[in-house]
Amino acid sequence: MPIDRSMNVLIVDDYKTMLRIIRNLLKQIEFHNVEEAVEGAEALARLRAGNFGLVISDWNMQPMTGLQLLQEVRADARLKSTPFIMITAESSAENVVAAKRAGVSNYIVKPFNAETLRDKIERVLPHG
Amino acid sequence: MVDRFTGSRVEPLARHIAAIRARYPNAKPEWIADVVRIVAMSLDRKPSFRQQRLLREIAGLERTIVDAKYELAALRGYNIHASHLPTATNELDDIVAHTASATHAILENCEMLDNLAAELPTEQATGLHEATTHIYEACSFQDITGQRIAKVVGTLKTIEAKVANILATFSDSPLEPYAMDLHGSHELLNGPQRPATAMVQSEIDQLLASFD
């Protein structure tokens, strides 16, 4: 069953180049409704105000890290079931475990390609 | 006959020897003689071989400290703390800024190509999209190199702080102790791992799957 590619996707990264790259890669895999946030607090505000089907966030951000954002999302009754993909350049097992324990839906290591992005998104989104 | 142990200087010693004899009745007088001989040797101001060696080591240590002070003074002359390290960090910051600027230009042109693809026949448009996708993927190098360089800059700043503190400790005209500016949350990651030691995506997938 196909996934709904018309959903709103929020991408979060304090590095604008990366936001632009992810946005373009999402466009290539047919996700066109993409919004951006450059830090955790802004992301949280957007999530609470809007209707997003997926969050893709960098871990390494300040002042709120991606992990803290994930914890906030999971603690919010309305947002807690939103699929959340963490992207990071650091791939130690401890971090993966910490993210999993915090409720991450999937985890992508930089550098990644469009195919990996598509695969991880398809795994976390409901089909049909 | 005058008792040879009644003089005021030897009386305390005599009392001690008598006490020791009372406590250790089987002690032999020559044992005490040995102790007295060793004490007498230590009092004649002639250092033993081990003492001489220790003194040489201390003198060598003193020379090393003096040399280090001269070298630190010279280091100060080179201005490593005031100029060289900050220059190196600035240059690395410039590299990040230049590569970011170049990456933005590449992305901008890629986006233009993507828009132009809409006017091309499907087969050519698909080919163009594939090419631009690979360029987008490759552009993430800038994020990775940026994080790596930020790590190096952090290390340089730590060295800079240490050098400043050493100079402040040993210099005749001390610098203000350098406050380490290690900003950032403990919850932040340490930046990209070396490819040789990092987990790859498939290993992470396996780790995540182990929770299911």
Beta-strand residue fraction of chain B: under 5%
Global geometry of chain B: elongated
* CA radius of gyration of chain B: 38 Å
Order of helices and strands of chain A: EHEHEHEHEH
Number of helical runs of chain A?
5
Main beta-sheet strand count, sense and barrel state of chain B: none
Measure the end-to-end span of chain B. 104 Å
> What would you call the shape of chain A?
globular
Précis, in short:
The complex is a heterodimer of chains A (128) and B (212). Chain A is of the alpha/beta class and 128 residues long.
Describe the structure.
The complex is a heterodimer of chains A (128) and B (212). Chain A has 128 residues and is of the alpha/beta class. Chain A has five helices and five strands; from the N terminus they run βαβαβαβαβα. Chain A has a five-stranded parallel β-sheet with strand order 2-1-3-4-5, sandwiched between helices. In chain A, helix 3 (66-75) links the parallel strand 3 and strand 4 (84-88). Chain A is globular, with a radius of gyration of 13 Å. The mean pLDDT of chain A is 93. Chain B is mainly alpha-helical. Chain B has helices at 11-23, 29-43, 49-78, 80-117, 122-139, 141-170, 201-209. In chain B, helix 3 packs across helix 4. The termini of chain B are far apart. Chains A and B meet through helix 1, helix 4 and strand 5 of A and helix 4, helix 5, helix 6 and helix 7 of B.
